[in-house]
Amino acid sequence: MATRNTIMSIRLVYYSRALRDMSLQDIQNILSTARENNSDQGICGMLCYESNWFLQALEGERKAVNELFLEIADDVRHDDCVIVSYEHVNECIFPNWHMGYSASSGAVTEMLKSFGLSSFEPEKLTPEQALEFLTTMSQQQQKAA
Ligand SMILES: Cc1cc2nc3c(=O)[nH]c(=O)nc-3n(C[C@H](O)[C@H](O)[C@H](O)COP(=O)(O)O)c2cc1C
């Protein structure tokens, strides 16, 4: 049973639609804010941007993640944030990233093909596929880093 001092960690995955084409600079701006704030809040995660869709995982203390998600959902750079999954976790999958990032690559196409998709449409991904997509992208990034 949870005690008063237990820190509840959660993982929230959502997708959203960018309201315009994002340049590399736009993404870098998001990432630099994210990395700075998330590190202060002990939040880790992964952000993918593909075909004008964002798919993001946020992991950390429940209240911090909830507050951050509400702030992100209010951001005018995107719209229609849809939560794909929200679960309590004992450990983080993205501990090395205060915010990892992945854009289009051959690996993306391969992954999508294995899900039976020819383009990136997060609304068609199951919660398990969305998480598999994000973890695979994170592993690719770590190999490349
Ligand atoms: C797709 C997307 C993902 C974002 N992810 C994060 C994030 O992980 N952490 C964060 O602090 N801000 C993130 N932001 C930015 C926030 O919406 C917001 O601009 C920022 O938290 C404001 O921080 P500031 O008050 O320090 O300027 C994201 C924005 C977008 C559009």
Task: Please explain how this structure is put together.
There is one protein chain. By secondary structure, this protein is of the alpha+beta class. It is built from four helices and five strands. It has one domain (9-144): Alpha-Beta Plaits. The protein has helices at residues 24-41, 62-73, 106-114, 127-144, and strands spanning 9-18, 44-50, 53-61, 78-88, 100-102. It has a five-stranded mixed sheet, sandwiched between helices. Strand 2 (44-50) and strand 3 (53-61) form a beta hairpin. Helix 3 packs antiparallel against helix 4 (127-144). It is globular. Flavin mononucleotide (FMN) binds at residues 30, 33-34, 37-38, 45, 47, 54, 56, 68, 71-72, 75, 77-78, 99.
Walk me through the topology.
Layout: E1 9-18, H1 24-41, E2 44-50, E3 53-61, H2 62-73, E4 78-88, E5 100-102, H3 106-114, H4 127-144
Parallel strand pairs: 2-5
Antiparallel strand pairs: 1-3, 1-4, 2-3
This protein binds flavin mononucleotide (FMN).
